[in-house]
Design a protein that fits this description.
alpha/beta, TIM Barrel, 13 helices, 8 strands, binds 3-hydroxypyruvic acid, binds magnesium ion
Length: 258
């Protein structure tokens, strides 16, 4: 039986919501704290977070060695890093700004072994973490290494059915911040706005029609709860920056009697 650090794909297939912690602060102890609080997976944000390669590898090692799944978000278009994340033990990769079928195909080519893609062999950490022999890893890896395409632009919304149809794309993930900016042509940052909400619902229904999952970035824990009820899976529960800032502010206000 494969390590619990690889249980995200199965949990998604069972139809359950997967609540993930979203980390940008490059500190393995912080990742360890979140990982021990019962989140279904820990996402390391390689696009906007503070990680260099070394910090990323150490964070992955800390989390996966306690049996909690790791997912990495790559910077835009850095598909080579997607393959490295899988080698280092991630069970999924989130790719931002997948705006076309071509973007989706390229993403798959780096994250899936043939015949779906062209992933290069080198799962140094992943072999140890899965406990699988190389032949068995080759056979199973495409199933538990999730390729998750972010839908967060007007262009991506227009192409969503075609992106969802690319073999090897396991699911999509909507980003409310960039969606609000692109849908308003740069006029507004409004991740909780009505236009973003209807784009979320549209992408969710298209994903369901395609038989694939839809995840989302929830800007607050309350929003995460709502999204799970709507049928989203792989839902972030805000982020480390937001959670820590809010807790720090609330603690100080309470101490000052406010
Ligand atoms: C977005 O909302 O644009 C995201 O990428 C989530 O971090
Ligand atoms: Mg974004």
């Amino acid at each position: 039986m494969i390590s619990s650090a690889y249980h995200v794909a199965a949990k998604i297939s069972s139809g359950s919501p997967v609540h993930v912690a979203w980390l940008g602060i490059a500190e393995p102890v912080l990742a360890d704290i979140f990982a021990r609080e019962g989140y279904d997976a820990i996402v390391f944000d390689g696009q906007h977070g503070l990680f260099d390669d070394n910090a990323m590898a150490r964070g992955f090692a800390t989390v996966s060695s306690i049996g909690v799944p790791v997912i990495g978000r790559i910077p835009v278009g850095n598909f080579a890093l997607a393959a490295r994340f899988l080698d280092l033990g991630a069970t999924g990769v989130i790719a931002p700004m997948i705006n076309s079928v071509e973007d989706a195909r390229q993403f798959v080519s780096f994250t899936k072994f043939p015949p779906l893609g062209e992933r290069s062999w080198g799962p140094a950490r992943a072999l140890a973490l899965t406990g699988l022999a190389p032949q068995e890893y080759l056979k199973q890896a495409n199933d538990f290494s999730l390729a998750i395409a972010m839908i967060e632009t007007r262009e991506a919304i227009a192409a969503v059915d075609d992106i969802l149809a690319v073999p090897g794309i396991d699911g999509v993930f909507v980003g409310p911040s960039d969606l609000s900016i692109t849908l308003s042509n740069g006029a507004a940052y409004d991740p909780m706005g009505a236009e973003v909400d209807s784009a979320f619902k549209h992408v969710l229904s298209r994903a369901k029609a395609a038989g694939k999952f839809c995840g989302a970035f929830a800007v607050s824990a309350a929003r995460a709860n709502e999204l799970a009820k709507q049928g989203f899976q792989l839902i972030t529960v805000s982020s480390d920056f937001v959670i820590i800032r809010e807790a720090a502010r609330t603690a100080l206000a309470t101490a000052r009697g406010k």
